[in-house]
Amino acid sequence: MFSISRQTWRDAVSVALTVGAYGVAFGAAGVAAGFSVVQTALFSLLAFTGASQFAAVGVVAAGGAGLSAVVAASLLSVRNALYSLQMAPRLETRGWRRFVAAHLTIDESTNVALAQSSLGPSAVRHGFWLTGSGVFIFWNLFTLLGAVGARALGNPAAWGLDAAVPAAFLGLLWPRLRDRRVRVIAGVAVIFSLVTTPLLPAGTPIIATVLVAVVAGWRP
Amino acid sequence: MATVSATLTWTVMIATSALCYLIKLVGYLVPARWFARERLQRINSLIPVVLLSALVVAQALAVKTHVVLDHRMAGVAAALAALFAKAPFPVVVLSAAITSAIVYRWH
Description:
The complex is a heterodimer of chains A (220) and B (107).
Chain A: H1 6-33, H2 37-46, H3 50-61, H4 66-76, H5 78-91, H6 97-103, H7 107-115, H8 121-153, H9 161-173, H10 180-196, H11 204-208, H12 210-218
Helix pairs in contact in A: 1-2, 1-3, 1-7, 1-8, 1-9, 2-8, 3-4, 7-8
Chain B: H1 6-29, H2 38-60, E1 62-63, E2 66-67, H3 71-84, H4 89-106
Antiparallel strand pairs in B: 1-2
Helix pairs in contact in B: 3-4
């Protein structure tokens, strides 16, 4: 951890602070979906992977079954396994450190770490640990703020919280839509879930759209 | 606040956290070649796209098994406008919340 470059610091801190905004949104989403403040805060501490957490509380808010919520969240977190495969040889972790590294393996820590590649292998490690722990601190702090705030406000609809959650999803989706093919696939997924909403039990259309990904990704 | 049972919310929170952690641990414990299949990676890269799209529909246009057009969609439309205007994330979420709350109170 000695002589960490200024660029690595800057990357890590700016990413960690930006994530704070999402933390507030998640805290509010958890409470609006019917989770308690304690459950919402524990969710961020223990799961610590934003998109999956949003998905789990989103399915519950949509009236879906617990199993649907857990499956949707787990599917969204499969990319973390691909990140850990990339980080394992670069971090050269052994023993108990692997279990800490695993918890901090998310979009932000992996991407900042890999972005330091030109500065050498130790910068990659610094980028991972700094960003992972920075995001961990801010994500949890801001989740708590969002949850306590939403609890104090009362009826989520009167404050627009029920629209803030899908808006947050849209914000997460937006950067991926630059690619034309991905835009088409997202459009198909929207139509598919609209059509299946009256046909399937509440919450299951979310899981069912995975079929769209399987069909679209089957061939290059 | 939505009324859902505490058993459901505790179960979802604990099971999701446990599974998400185990999934993260995979890369540190298993050989990389297990994940080398191209098809698996292609499908995996599309999963966030379809799930996020479906979640927007479920949260903005659905009430249980009904498709409903209400204040939430007004909020999401505002978010969409903000995204087109290249607004940062907090502005996107706030514009959705404010628009939705105004439409909700109007009715």
